[in-house]
Design a protein that fits this description.
Elements lengths: L11 H10 L1 H21 L5 E11 H4 L8 H17 L3 H11 L5 H6 L1 E5 L5 E8 L2 H14 L9 E7 L12 H25 L7 H7 L37
Antiparallel strand pairs: 1-3, 1-4, 2-3
Helix pairs in contact: 2-8, 5-7
Length: 252
Amino acid sequence: MNEKKDYMEIDLLRLGRAILKRWWLIAIVSILGGVIAFGYASYFVKPTYTSKAQILVVNSAASNTAGRNPTASELNAAQQLANTYMVIIKSTSTMKRVMDKLGINVSPEVLQRMIKTEIVPDTEIFKVKVTALSPEGAKQIADALVEVFPEEIPYPNSVLNVIEEPDLPRSRTSPNRTRYAFIGMVLGFILSAGIVVITDMTDDIIRSEDHLVQNYDLPILVVIPDLHDYGEGHSTGYYRYSSSKPKEGETK
């Protein structure tokens, strides 16, 4: 006796048709996922704000050039100093000075996680970014950091110029609600499309000869046509047959 195949052939066209057939369900779930993610970002994720400043590092040898352009070695020395200062500005001693100035009682590690630094490529400038839960808090910490930082500089022959004072953030840094909504829509699409595909693949209703050929090693002996496809104007159709005997006074 032929048995059912122990493997399944995936018909991509069939799955595509199943997805298109239920496009409205996938669209609703995708939009719902985006709305839920947007609402979550708006009401459950605490917003953060970032104050930014820029500091120029000038080597004393380059600053005393008497009108001439600094040499490549002088610029390279200033860039190396900028990289060094990015480490010093987040040091524990600098954090303690900031905490003392602001009168806040947090650990230096907490404050360090709020501060980011990055070098401006091919320059002697580095950026300082302070992120906090309020615009005012971010600016206060950035102001204190820029003020106390020169006291930590171990090189007397270098000069620091604050070319961009810390600003008051006007918009939140995170969460990005648009990104949250997009991710929610993508997840909703994947979830709904996956459910549609799994439902279609596990559907064991026999709808065509191809289904039998793909899933069973059985010969097809006869095919019952769907008489509903003939439409109006034809006398053919399905009817119910009963083998029960007629009651008295009735004709069958």
